[in-house]
Amino acid sequence: MMPRDxxxxxxxxAVEAMTGSITETGSDPLALLAAYCxxxxxxxxFERWCRDFQEHPRAYxxxxxxxxxxxxxxxxxxxxxxxxxxxxxTRWTARVRVFRDGAIWRGFISFQAEDYGTECRTSEIFCEExxxxxxxxxxxxxxxxxxxFLRSCLPERxxxxxx
Length: 163
Hints:
The chain is of the alpha+beta class. The chain is built from 7 helices and 5 strands, in the order αααααβββββαα.
C-alpha cells in the first residue's frame, strides 16, 4: 500500500520517534514500524472493525469504488463478496475479486476448497462501470451457474475419469 522507496524514510522516522519504545517491540524492525504507524493512524481494534464491516458493508464498497488512484489493481484485486458452494461433496467458498481498469470494474470468481486448501479461479468474467452492479450479478448466480464456473477452472485431478 506504500511505495517501496517510502519504507526506509518511514522506518528512519519510526526509529527516531520510538527510541524509548524499542524495548516494547524488541529487535523486530517490522514490529517497531507497525507500532509507529499505529500512533500515526490509530485503527480501531480488529473485532470492532469486523462488527462495523458486517453492519455496514455498503460503506466499505463505496470507499473502494471512490478510490480510483489507489484502488485494487489486476495484480492485487479486492474481494467484494463471497458465497458457500457445495460441489461433488466438497465445500468451496466462491469469492468475487475485482480491480479497476480505468473507469471500469473487472473481476473474476475465485474458488477455494475447504477440505483441500485448493484454490482456482475463472478468467475475467465481469466488466461493469458500477461496482454495485457487478456485486449484484455475482449474487444473482444460482448454484448451477456457480457449479459451471467452478468446473471451468477446476484442476484436472478433481475430475473422475470414466472408463
